[in-house]
Amino acid sequence: MFSGLSAFPLTPMNAAGPDDVTFVRLIENLAEANVDSIGALGSTGSYAYLNRAERARIARLAVQHAGPVPVMVGIGATSTREVLHLAEDAQQAGAKALLLAPVSYQPLNSEEVYELYRNVSHELSVPLCVYDNPRTTRFEFSDELHARIARLPGVASIKIPGVPADPQAAKERVERLRKQIPSHVSIGISGDPLAATGLNAGCELWYSVLGGLFPRTALALTRAALAGDSEQAEQLSRELTPLWEMFHQHGSARVVAAAAELLGHVEAPCLPAPLQALNNTERTTLAALLDKLALSR
Amino acid sequence: MFSGLSAFPLTPMNAAGPDDVTFVRLIENLAEANVDSIGALGSTGSYAYLNRAERARIARLAVQHAGPVPVMVGIGATSTREVLHLAEDAQQAGAKALLLAPVSYQPLNSEEVYELYRNVSHELSVPLCVYDNPRTTRFEFSDELHARIARLPGVASIKIPGVPADPQAAKERVERLRKQIPSHVSIGISGDPLAATGLNAGCELWYSVLGGLFPRTALALTRAALAGDSEQAEQLSRELTPLWEMFHQHGSARVVAAAAELLGHVEAPCLPAPLQALNNTERTTLAALLDKLALSR
């Protein structure tokens, strides 16, 4: 399951908590689009804002409505104890893989992060994806630490937070990491604005925010890149430049949440407070952009 | 209650969760030392690593064993929903004040943080302390935002993350903030290494990590400063320089946790995994230092 397009849907919220019905519709759309995997309860899926019972329920709904598409579930939390509980819940829900970021309150050091992955990896019966996202965890993985963690049992993929924009530098970056980790561990690109660059540079999959809402647009880009048509992949990405700029400015989750609200796929507000999607001026810009781009669900 | 020494105890952990018996002993020591207030479930008290039921229980234990000393309880969480639940629990436990940091996963913007405080402040029946701690929340308050939030109903104090080391610059910093907030809102210094400098610069209280374990040492420094003996306060702080250096290097919670373990006040390991107190080499250094400093509980 660690190749192609891994689509990360929102977990839409309402006043009472996660909006199950709307979440199921997002999952069904991903299953119909035939994405290669679904990443439920990723950052875009607001995992860090839900309690354990809600996360277990959302994990079950994702698996139940994904059809044959394998579901990976985010199990990040500040404490190792809670991560282990969440791993158990997600596996019981039928998750085919788990996604773990070193979520922090007190800034973590490398030894703490290694011990977190070591303790968790020994308790799992499904593969683990290492989620490297310094923007939300404020932890910077060194390649040396990636190499140590990638050798732990069950580690199957690393979700990297981006690559250099220059294609040659991106290739060197991916090759440098590739050399240090076992060959069975895939490298996936996240940070949608550089997804084409990452795939063209040798990443095996795209962990995609855009793909959670617009799977067919994200699939076209992914398939062009993985078929070796790097020009076509770059061209498809370039067409989305104004959207990527909004991702940079506001964070991808806020932009995709506002897009889902504008297009009527979720009720507004769909993000968990205190997070806010875009303000009115920004929404007007985004609405015009969505009209023009005609992204494909 | 927002003056003098506010002491922040550890919440010692064991394999099952918070170690109630040991926590109660720490609280009783603070009550006997007659600190001006107790900050239960602060960063040092690992609030971000406990679930709602554990936090409610620890809040109750703190209030029950603090005697006449007023207890403030930390209610920070990533979601506003959870913060409101925690506020309710803490007030039912008998907290005399609440402490709220803008805890984040997705980085927050100023409008989101303002709305968080606005929504929460309207639901409270006890005073609120604004907890400004960019090291753990990764959110930087502007003075303008402090001014807006300080005008919300019930806001009674701001816990600032430090002051410049230079006494004159520290004074200017505190005066600049003071001018922008209502006079009934106190300013408290945190970041123990600059506590004396902050108190001498006009902060009304010290939100103290050291004071959670060694209240009498922290009280001596606080009382000297608040009595106007700035030289004596600076001198007492200077004597602790090697300890402050360890705070800077490892984070104050890791150092105080290791000190509590070394002195037998808590069982080891007392921090919630994945957090680790100091390694063996660092512990040897700390043990020698504790011998030399003979801090007063």
UniProtKB/TrEMBL annotation, chains A, B:
Pyruvate binds at T44. GO terms for molecular function: 4-hydroxy-tetrahydrodipicolinate synthase activity. Keywords: Lyase. The active site is at Y131 (proton donor/acceptor), K159 (schiff-base intermediate with substrate). Belongs to the DapA family. InterPro entries: Aldolase_TIM, DapA-like. GO terms for cellular component: cytosol. It comes from Oceanimonas baumannii. Transmembrane segments: none annotated. This is 4-hydroxy-tetrahydrodipicolinate synthase. The keyword Lyase applies. Pfam families: DHDPS.
